[in-house]
């Protein structure tokens, strides 16, 4: 019995030895996806002046580091060739009257090294711009945009943009605005993906995303009909590790990462419908303060003086 207890004690000492931290992952916060820091948006605003341009740009890249602190946030981003950056116009607006459309001609459909989907260069009466190309979009094609809310749901044409409330249930869409008449972020931008209109409820339209979550948008939010191009992007083979580095993918370390409960086969229920009613208020800016050592210590009164100083150990001559 004593020998068995000794073996258990030895095994536990090996498990929690000097320099070894055994931490249960149950107490850690929930796994979340960190934002990807690829390009310096402040540098982009300086070079464009906050205006849209269809010309290729050379902007600074962050390489996965936070733009303010400089700390490494994304571990597998860094290096690579400096490809030209093209601004994509995700907010297609058109006339609001019935029967009127804003027409554009597709001049070119090309690959973009900074995105997974192909991009299309279109031109109309208001100028030229880059948009995300749909699956069957070709050069010479005429695409239309309208903001008129149809009385009856219609079957949209691929590559054309309509309000969500005008499209029929089951329509495949991409580049969905988060809020109407605002330059907010757009959903469904990855190659080969598309969302599906599930139902209309009053002033909102329920859309099922590619990852099965359901979002509720305003009926006036614009979206492009069709599935995004370059669907076989994830099946392509780079051929070598050097080609990965050329496109800015940084290799992971050879350290073995033990799987935890997040990697299990647990069937998690889908969350409730997320409603995008009004935009959230902007967070207050961080304030910077400079404190002295005395202020940083937090000590007040007699506690600010070391206990040896009143005893005579201050460097002055000690009286006999």
UniProtKB/TrEMBL annotation:
It comes from the Eukaryota. Keywords: Ribonucleoprotein, Ribosomal protein. One of its GO terms (biological process) is mitochondrial translation. Residues 64-145 form the Large ribosomal subunit protein uL2 RNA-binding domain. Residues 156-279 form the Large ribosomal subunit protein uL2 C-terminal domain. GO terms for molecular function: RNA binding; structural constituent of ribosome. One of its GO terms (cellular component) is mitochondrial large ribosomal subunit. SUPFAM superfamilies: Nucleic acid-binding proteins, Translation proteins SH3-like domain. InterPro entries: NA-bd_OB-fold, Rib_uL2_dom2, Ribosomal_uL2, Ribosomal_uL2_C, Ribosomal_uL2_RNA-bd_dom, Translation_prot_SH3-like_sf. Belongs to the universal ribosomal protein uL2 family. This is Ribosomal protein L2 C-terminal domain-containing protein. It comes from Mesorhabditis belari. The lineage of its organism: Eukaryota, Metazoa, Ecdysozoa, Nematoda, Chromadorea.
């Amino acid at each position: 019995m004593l020998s068995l207890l000794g073996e258990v004690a030895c095994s536990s000492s090996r498990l929690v030895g000097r320099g070894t931290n055994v931490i249960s992952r149950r107490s850690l916060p929930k796994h979340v996806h960190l934002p990807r820091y690829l390009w310096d948006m402040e540098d982009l605003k300086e070079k464009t002046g906050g205006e849209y341009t269809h010309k290729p740009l050379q902007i600074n890249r962050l390489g996965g580091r936070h733009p303010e602190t400089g700390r490494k946030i994304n571990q597998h981003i860094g290096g690579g060739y400096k490809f030209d950056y093209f601004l994509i116009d995700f907010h297609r607006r058109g006339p609001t009257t019935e029967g009127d459309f804003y027409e554009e001609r597709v001049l070119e459909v090309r690959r973009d090294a900074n995105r997974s989907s192909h991009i299309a260069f279109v031109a109309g009466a208001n100028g030229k711009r880059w948009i995300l190309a749909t699956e069957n979009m070709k050069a010479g094609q005429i695409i239309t945009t309208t903001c008129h809310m149809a009385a009856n749901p219609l079957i949209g044409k691929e590559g054309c943009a309509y309000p969500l409330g005008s499209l029929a249930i089951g329509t495949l869409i991409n580049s969905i605005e988060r809020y109407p008449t605002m330059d907010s972020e757009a959903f469904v931008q990855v190659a080969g993906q598309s969302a599906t209109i599930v139902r209309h409820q009053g002033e909102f339209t329920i859309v099922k995303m590619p990852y099965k979550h359901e979002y509720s948008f305003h009926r006036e939010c614009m979206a492009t009909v069709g599935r995004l191009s370059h669907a076989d992007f994830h099946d392509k083979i780079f051929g070598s590790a050097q080609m990965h580095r050329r496109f800015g993918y940084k290799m992971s370390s050879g350290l073995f990462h033990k799987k935890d409960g997040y990697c299990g086969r647990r069937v998690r229920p889908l969350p409730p419908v997320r409603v995008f009613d009004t935009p959230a208020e902007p967070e207050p800016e961080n304030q910077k303060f400079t404190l002295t050592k005395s202020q940083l210590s937090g000590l007040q009164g007699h506690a600010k003086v070391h206990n040896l100083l009143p005893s005579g150990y201050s460097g002055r001559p000690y009286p006999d």
